[in-house]
Specification:
Length: 314
């Protein structure tokens, strides 16, 4: 598979006197037609990372490439041609749509912004995108306040897909939906990938949601990358203590297996982003932490078959 997106030592810092390192030295690759999940607790830097590669935030340092083009120094005008192939689906779908316009008019607006088509072709593309996301095409004549949350999120996804992008960044795309609707939307993402060959970056805090749809999973904690591996490998053989704690919190449907499982409860509080610990940021909550963990942040090292882990003691 060809590399569609690549980041090297990407950083995003906020503030001048008191620095918040929202994204701190993140390097990863997403291949064309594949799915990468980025998971971690709230405040880990996942959404900021998504905004950086979507061009909605400027990196403080580091580089990233999309379709072979170096992107971090591009102006908004220079970045604009790439937005057609680099779309973002936000967690709050209702905020994406102008309530004064119909769903169809909202989707049509973004299509006309990026593509020059014959007048009849615009309507066909909008209809196609709605059908692809499991919606009745007639929904294009309704307003956001007249449809359900599940329909609204599907329309939000249609809005991104109408441009036929190569990469869609999905920021917690199902977390605001009922569990039954979550499964439908995740299955829809999978079907669309098979049909369209689109690549995804799924930003989520719930491993259960992203496991079966992701080719690889990356784990972030306070701006740092802790572990990256193939999805099945990460679930079968987690190594980093933070990943182990996240996996232990995933509900197990089988009662007998659930009784035998051991929940790893992390001690201590998440450090303040304004007062980060030295070395590894996870060390203040890690039972394996040693003096070396406080002195230096471990680099991601390959433990075999592309299973990358940043830990001194595991």
């Amino acid at each position: 598979m060809s590399t569609l997106l690549k980041t090297e030592h990407l950083k995003k810092y906020y503030g001048k006197k008191k620095i918040v390192k929202a994204v701190d030295d993140v390097s990863l690759e997403i291949h064309a037609g594949s799915s990468m999940a980025l998971i971690g607790e709230s405040g880990s830097g996942k959404t900021t990372f998504g905004k950086l590669i979507a061009g909605l935030e400027k990196p403080t340092d580091g580089k990233f490439w999309f379709q072979g083009q170096e992107m971090q120094d591009l102006s908004e005008k220079q970045f604009r041609p790439y937005r057609k192939n680099l779309q973002m689906v936000f967690q709050s779908s209702s905020g994406v749509f102008d309530p004064g316009y119909t769903i169809g008019e909202n989707i049509l607006e973004i299509l006309k912004l990026h593509e020059k088509l014959q007048e009849g072709e615009y309507e066909e593309r909008v209809k196609e995108a709605l059908i692809q996301t499991g919606l009745d095409p007639d929904i294009r004549n309704r307003y956001v306040g007249q449809i359900s949350g599940g329909q609204c999120q599907r329309a939000n996804i249609a809005r991104a897909l109408v441009l036929r992008p190569e990469l869609v960044i999905c920021d917690e795309p199902v977390s605001a939906l009922d569990v039954s609707i979550q499964a439908q939307v995740v299955n829809m993402f999978e079907e669309l990938q098979e049909k369209l060959g689109v690549a995804y970056l799924f930003i989520a805090h719930d491993l259960l949601v992203v496991h079966h749809i992701s080719d690889r999973i990356a784990v972030m904690y306070l701006g740092k990358m802790m572990e990256i591996a193939d999805a099945d490998e990460l679930n079968a053989n987690p190594i980093h203590p933070y990943t182990l704690s996240l996996l232990s919190a995933v509900p197990i449907p089988d009662p007998e297996t659930a009784r035998k499982s051991h929940r790893i409860v992390l001690e201590g509080d998440v450090p303040s982003p304004l007062k980060m610990p030295t070395g590894c940021p996870f060390r203040t909550r890690c039972k394996y932490a040693t003096e070396k963990c406080g002195q230096e942040m471990p680099q991601l090292t390959d433990r075999g078959n592309g299973h990358m882990v940043a830990c001194w003691n595991k």
